[in-house]
Design a protein that fits this description.
Elements lengths: L1 E5 L4 H13 L3 E5 L10 H4 L9 E3 L5 E3 L1 H9 L9 H30 L8 H21 L13 H10 L13 H11 L23
Glutathione binds next to helix 3.
């Protein structure tokens, strides 16, 4: 059976949780206490050298990390990952966009906001992440003005990946109200079969107010 390495407040891990639910993938879950240094233990770094979640271990012992790599691997052969080379490349385009423009901006700002670390971060860095986050939402809003899902007519792992942090922008202090097409896409994703509504605040882990090891 597949082993899934999870940490509940992580929206990177949520991506995998959502896909597993929608594809009904049987798995065992192991929770990694990233704020207690468990991620940096030699045992876990053999699973993911960065020490981050999510990661998976296949039944044959092979391990895979990086949320978007896990999504594309698990979705292979399903409707969530196209087979046409160009359509696959479009999915990869938006998965790369997600890491650079969404996860690295809204993800960081949300984490710092929800764990009261924002004020201790360099103001220039916060401003630059905020500007890129807003640019990302503007781009997505424009994309969703002409199509229901990011790669066209069909829901793919690129939608799952983008949804994880972009839909939580309000928790990073960014109002979604100006992004009407984007908001309609959020609702569309939330209506897909097997959608997982549970989101876990960092406050469920008292250690999350400290810094990562
Ligand atoms: N690019 C990675 C980022 C993973 C990541 O930053 N995970 C966070 C939780 S959201 C984590 O485990 N941080 C602990 C650490 O980096 O030591 C992905 O998409 O999976």
């Amino acid at each position: 059976m597949l082993t899934f390495y999870d940490y509940l407040p992580s929206q990177n891990a949520f991506k995998v949780r959502l896909l597993q639910s929608q594809l009904r993938i049987p798995h065992d879950t192991k929770y990694v206490s990233i704020f207690s240094g468990e991620g940096q233990s030699p045992e876990y770094r053999r699973i993911n050298p960065t020490g981050a979640v999510p990661a998976i271990r296949l039944e044959d012992g092979r391990v895979l990390a990086e949320s978007n790599a896990i999504l594309t691997f698990l979705a292979e052969g399903t409707d969530f990952m196209p087979s046409d080379p160009f359509e696959r490349a479009k999915v990869n385009q938006w998965l790369s966009f997600e890491q650079d423009y969404v996860q690295n901006t809204i993800g960081s700002l949300r984490y710092w906001t929800m764990t009261s670390k924002l004020d201790s971060r360099p103001a220039d860095l916060v401003r630059s992440k905020m500007a890129t986050a807003i640019k990302a939402l503007q781009i997505l809003d424009e994309e969703f003005s002409s199509k229901p899902f990011i790669c066209g007519q069909h829901y793919t792992v690129a939608d799952i990946s983008l949804y994880a942090y972009a839909s939580r922008a309000d928790e990073a202090g960014i109002s979604l109200a100006p992004f009407k097409h984007f908001e309609r896409w959020v609702q569309r994703v939330e209506r897909t079969p097997g959608f997982v509504a549970e989101i876990y605040p960092y406050s469920i882990d008292p250690r999350s107010s400290g810094e990562l090891a």
